[in-house]
Design a protein that fits this description.
This protein is mostly helical. Helices cover 90% and strands 0% of the residues. It has a domain of 34 residues.
């Protein structure tokens, strides 16, 4: 497989993982979070939402890095 094709495949994997993480974040914010925050102070709600969003952003970055490492390992084993 050519290097360009491998790069395209790795990019597609990373984008797919990122899209899945974004969908999970949106699901959490729209479905789960309102139930958790029911009846809380608005400032506390915003603070909690920011913590959750920041945590998901960090988790997404970590998953993308792990995906790239796994892809590089698999690619190197095939050679």
């Amino acid at each position: 497989m050519s290097r360009r094709r491998e790069a395209n495949r790795a990019e597609a994997i990373v984008r797919g993982v990122g899209a899945i993480m974004l969908l999970l974040l949106l699901l959490g914010v729209t479905q789960v979070l309102p139930q958790i925050l029911n009846g809380k102070d608005p400032k506390e709600m915003i603070s909690t939402m920011m913590l959750i969003i920041t945590g998901f952003a960090m988790l997404t970055g970590f998953v993308v890095m792990v995906g790239l490492i796994v892809w590089a390992t698999v690619r190197n084993r095939k050679r």
